[in-house]
Amino acid sequence: MQRVIVLDNLAQEGLDLLAAAEGVEYEVRIGLKGDELREALSQFDGAICRSGVKITPESLVGNSRLKAIVRAGVGTDNIDKPASTRAGVVVMNTPAGNTLSTAEHAIALMLAMSRNVAPANQGLVEGRWDRKKYMGTQVAGKTLGVVGLGRIGLAVATRAKALEMNILGYDPFMSQERAADLGIELVATVDEMLPDIDYLTVHTPLTDETRNLIDLPQLERIKPGARLVNAARGGIYNEQALIEGLKSGKLAGVALDVYVDEPCTDSPLFGMEGVVCTPHLGASTEEAQTQVAVEAVGLLTDFLLNGQIKNAVNVAALDAKTLASLRGYLDVAYRLGRLAVGLLPSGIASCRLTARGEISGKDTKLLTSAFSCGLLDGVFEEEVNLINAQMLLEDRGIKLTTESQSGMGAFRSSLTAEFESSQGVMHKVVGTVFGESMPRLVALDGYRLEAYLDGCLLIFTHQDVPGIIGGVGNICGEHGVNIAQMAVGRAGDHPGGEAVGILNLDAAPSAEALEAVRQLPAISSAQVIHLPEADELPSWLQG
Ligand SMILES: NC(=O)c1ccc[n+]([C@@H]2O[C@H](COP(=O)([O-])OP(=O)(O)OC[C@H]3O[C@@H](n4cnc5c(N)ncnc54)[C@H](O)[C@@H]3O)[C@@H](O)[C@H]2O)c1
Ligand SMILES: O=C(O)CC[C@@H](O)C(=O)O
Questions:
Q1: Catalytic: 233?
Q2: Residue nearest to atom 43 of ligand 1 (CA)
Q3: How far is CA 508 from CA 34, 76, 375, 460, in A?
Q4: ACT domain location, by residue (predicted)?
Q5: What is the number of the ligand closest to the CA of 203?
Q6: What's the pLDDT tens digit per position in 480-500?
Q7: What ipTM does this complex have?
């Protein structure tokens, strides 16, 4: 049973879907923080939240169960993404469900601010008929600056055009042509638009570039009497600068839905003339909440039940079809990682994974992650998976590079892993898939062979002389160890040189048997490496 925790208010339609999902059970626990949140998260496989709960690094400490957090909404700034990735937790969001509602809210704030809707209403509530006091301003014919022309920014621009406003836009990821098609005049910097705008609205995420995008220096440049709207994220406008801009008269109005610290119930901006504020209501419509809740539940159940990753913000997308088509090679990559650790048990400093043939056109990042999982499995208390493996490898300073070569070589597809210890000991192994799903080792340190890539492997190097296989086979027989398959490989086509042998054994040989193999004349080294059987594979590899 997959257990899901709902950490913020979620529309009933989403909860109904969770209740109906087979193999899933859920609990709603709102308002958690600190130790309570950490303990709760450790008992669930998936979590759904909005912007209320804060998923901090501390809240994920020691958590080996949680696999995914889905944000029912756009902004994931309340979820620590690096900490989630490190903990192997995929973070997904529902980016489109609340676009129109938020755009409408930005427009509503702009109009309410222009026509003094909030104070005029308050005047009536207090018994005043103040028709002179609340002289407004018309938006038609005015210029609106839109910073951030993504989903919401464009929806705001379209609506503002319908209100007969002129639109100046700024977004480094928008082309002149596309902007012109939408009737937006694109400018090269925010500074450039400031002297020309009557209204400004921002629709970017809060990042290092957008934090304090509008501060005192920008207010110097802005057209006197400008009105500012923020329904994106608190902090894009510097709140202190807004206060000073209003006090000096440089700004005629400010409309905010979002704040630096939320919840925010006490701000010097509240009650100032020209200011209208709402408590983060952009997405608070029945339509938006139903849509994001339904989408969030779909994303989480698809992931927990089928391994499908969509709308992830900390890892690449992974649909069920890609996962199925790659499963055989993910398995080989994982096993080559395990084999690498077996061959270099004292530690690996760097490795290179090369995908050859048909597989080179597939998602090599995923193959690299699977190989990294093989390298690190069992090293940490937490589960290592496709989400966190590469980051954990980087944390430990292990260099891993990936290459793709479209040429096929001897196999339609193969994966080559080369790895080196910090003492300079190197190995090179090549794996492929036989049939649909049979992982095979087809080369070891330049020796061509064909060995199973699972269970117990007895690997020995020897002089290529008669009697070696017989000698090793006799020792196994004497010690009651059954040989499932054997493979020998020589470096070139000529006998008599160095060779390698691999026996796939049904059980691990005793230390005594291994020592007896080592003592055979012409054997130069022998070691036993355990690779996982099908039922020992990590959950993400089990189909
Ligand atoms: N008030 C609410 O309830 C509410 C609801 C939904 C979304 N939001 C917020 O609205 C914002 C926009 O959401 P969206 O769905 O449109 O996101 P989006 O990803 O579709 O668009 C963001 C745009 O910002 C642009 N951008 C990034 N950095 C920029 C920069 N330095 N300067 C200019 N443009 C930059 C990007 O190129 C992108 O086009 C987000 O911060 C989101 O969290 C708020
Ligand atoms: O959950 C909410 O209501 C806030 C939504 C909004 O800030 C978002 O980023 O999607």
A1: yes
A2: 75
A3: 47, 49, 21, 15
A4: 457-536
A5: 1
A6: 999 999 999 887 767 778 899
A7: 0.99
Return the half-sphere exposure (C-beta side, CA atoms, 13 A cut-off) of residue 466: 0
- Cβ neighbors of 538 (< 8 A, separation 6 or more) are 334, 373, 377, 383, 384, 385
Our mutation pick for probing the ligand 2 site, out of 8, 51, 204, counting the most ligand atoms within 8 A of Cβ, is 51
Q: Give this prediction's pTM.
A: 0.79
Nearest ligand 2 atom to alpha carbon 93: 10
Three-state secondary structure call for residue 34 = helix
Longest Cα–Cα distance in the chain? 110
Ligand nearest to the CA of 74: 2
Q: Which atom of ligand 2 is nearest to the CA of 8?
A: 1
Q: How far is the CA of 94 from the centre of ligand 2 (A)?
A: 10
Instruction: Tell me, yes or no, if the two domains 2-96+286-306 and 99-277 fold the same way.
Output: yes
- Domain-by-domain residue ranges, the chain? 2-96+286-306, 99-277, 320-537
The CATH code of the domain at 2-96+286-306 is 3.40.50.720
Q: Which two tokens stand for residue 80?
A: 């620590």
CATH code for the part of the protein at 99-277: 3.40.50.720
Q: Is 320-537 a CATH 3.30.1330.90 domain?
A: yes
